[in-house]
Amino acid sequence: MVILAGFLVNQGRMKFLSALLVMLSGYTAGSLVAYLIGRKLGQPFFVQSGRYLHIFPERFNQARGWLDRSAPAFIIFGRFLPGLSNLTPYMAGVSRVKIGCFLFYNSIFALGWGVLYLMIGIFFGHNYYIFSEYLNSKLPLIGLVLLGSYFLYPYVKKFFRKEIKNI
Predict the structure, then answer these.
(1) Cβ contacts of residue 137 below 8 Å, gap of 6+?
(2) Which of 152, 153, 36, 21 shows the shortest CA–CA distance to 96?
(3) Helix, coil or strand: residue 167
(4) Coil, helix or strand for 49?
(5) Are 131 and 124 in contact (CB under 8 A)?
(6) Residue 97: how many other CB atoms lie within 10 Å
(7) Does the structure show a pLDDT above 90 at 65?
(8) With a threshold of 0.85, does the pTM exceed it?
(9) What is the mean pLDDT of residues 64-82?
(10) Minimal CA–CA distance to 67: which of 97, 39, 32?
(11) 14-18, 81-85, 138-142, 154-158: which has the minimum mean pLDDT?
């Protein structure tokens, strides 16, 4: 959605500052809810339901250790790490990081992230005709390849499992 907003900024349908403020508000609201869930439910909830949430004890303990060493760095840079990014606000809540501290560092990350993705949208909006011309000429081929891949995937997966068992 943020990239789409950047696209609309490029077209003059939305102001950059308005898009950035709306993105910051939404991102902060979502992160705050996750923080509060972590703070209210705590570590026992994540340990008990970790397998359903794909949060394994070793990942949880690793994130907790990083958070204990440096909460600001964890909150800002932890969002860039796959598998850890969505866990960051919950972990901040579980670890009882002060809410003001969390919101401050979370806002720093959100601002950088938002500007980056708005700029990507502006870039694609500025070069829309180049991309649309390329996509329109290649779209049927891309669609057929994706559709074929979708239907072939189960057979390929089954074949490789069988080959691995034979080794």
Answers:
(1) none
(2) 36
(3) coil
(4) coil
(5) yes
(6) 23
(7) no
(8) no
(9) 76
(10) 97
(11) 81-85
DSSP-assigned letters across all residues of 51-75: HHHT--HHHHHHHHHHHHH-HHHHH
Structure tokens at 144: 């057929």
**Which residues, 6+ apart, have CB-to-CB distance to 4 below 8 Å?**
121
The pairs formed by 80-89 with CB atoms below 8 angstroms and a separation of 24 or more are 83/59, 84/59, 86/34, 87/55, 87/59, 87/60, 87/63, 88/63, 89/31, 89/32, 89/34, 89/35, 89/38
Q: Which of 35, 33, 2 is nearest to 19 (CA)?
A: 2
Per residue in 96-135, pLDDT tens? 888 998 999 999 989 998 999 999 988 888 777 776 676 6
CA 106, 108, 114: angle at the middle one, nearest 5?
Answer: 95
> CB within 8 A of 3, min separation 6: which ones?
117, 118, 120, 121, 124
